[in-house]
Specification:
Blueprint lengths: L3 E5 L5 H12 L6 E5 L2 H9 L5 E8 L3 E2 L1 H9 L4 E9 L3 E4 L8 E4 L1 H6 L1 H7 L4 E4 L3 H8 L5 E5 L2 H6 L2 E4 L9 E8 L9 E8 L6 H11 L4 E8 L7 E8 L3 H14 L3 E14 L4
């Protein structure tokens, strides 16, 4: 059966490219790609079994964790990360008009944030307007002389627009990690283990005790991030990525999690998976 893979659409987004690459790495045979309107829709498609897999951004090198994805992984603990790739992100300013005419710039909030310095220097009076995706932004600027979109250069030919500036991201090494989600945990080779937890008590040293366990078991944290629990002020969820170097590490991960769980009010395991860097043409 052909697998249905949801991603943040419409066509032409970096998410679509990530979905194609991750599906190939997962050996999906002729998958059916399902563009969704907004990250919540992507996550719900896998959570409610409307699709077999989903591809979402989880982390950007400039803006950090993608909060919608992190919150959804916590909300739906039966979803696992199977694979991950890191894609270089290079944004273009796309429009039907000229640079001197632009008064509104549309794009996904992450893209707007990643280009905020360029916009303040080159279009200081332009109003940034968030959209559900970079592709949606491009569709919304067609036919307008005063609107521009921040998106991938690949959309210029698709939509018949023109490039006003490229690249415009503030950091040259800007990249985003995309993950492949499914209801089945990964059993193949891994180099990252991801999980999140909330602590039983908000007392001095509670988080330090959990982190000390990680150090005692010999793991390096490649990421630690906190998000509000949304239940009460001052209560946080801690998201952690650990580096896995060999099979022995994978076996030790299970022991570490068993030591951490008694400290936690809630513990969600996102799984062990392989992440790799991808160069785009």
């Amino acid at each position: 059966m052909r697998k249905q893979v949801a991603y943040l659409g419409p066509k032409g987004t970096y998410a679509e490219k990530a979905a194609q690459i991750l599906s190939k790495l997962a050996n999906f045979q002729t998958p059916i790609f399902v563009p969704c309107n907004g990250l919540h829709s992507v996550i719900k498609s896998i959570a409610y079994n409307n699709c077999d897999a989903a591809v979402v951004p989880i982390e950007n090198s400039v803006e950090g964790g993608v909060t919608s994805t992190l919150d959804a992984l916590w909300k739906f603990p039966d979803i696992y990360i199977n694979k991950a790739i890191v894609l270089p992100i290079k944004h273009a300013l796309i429009s039907d008009g000229e640079l001197t005419m632009i008064s509104e710039v549309l794009s996904h909030p992450q893209a707007l944030a990643q280009c905020s310095e360029w916009l303040s220097e080159n279009l200081p009076n332009a109003i940034p307007l968030p959209t559900n995706s970079t592709s949606e932004a491009v569709n919304m600027v067609k036919g307008s002389k005063f609107r521009a979109a921040i998106a991938s250069k690949s959309l210029i030919q698709i939509e018949g627009l023109k490039e006003l500036a490229f690249p415009i991201n503030d950091v040259a090494g800007n990249c985003t990690r995309f993950v492949l989600l499914s209801k089945e945990s990964n059993s193949n080779s891994s180099n990252i283990a991801s999980f999140a937890f909330s602590l039983i008590s908000n007392k001095p040293g509670a988080l330090l005790k959990a982190i000390n366990y990680i150090a005692e078991f010999g793991f390096n944290m490649s990421k630690i991030e906190s998000r509000p629990s949304k239940r009460e002020l001052g209560e946080y969820i801690i998201y952690i990525d650990l580096e896995i170097n060999n099979q022995r590490n994978i076996e030790t991960i299970h022991k570490l999690k068993n030591h951490l769980k008694p400290l936690c009010k809630n513990f969600v395991d996102f799984g062990n998976y392989f992440s790799e860097n991808i160069e785009l043409d």
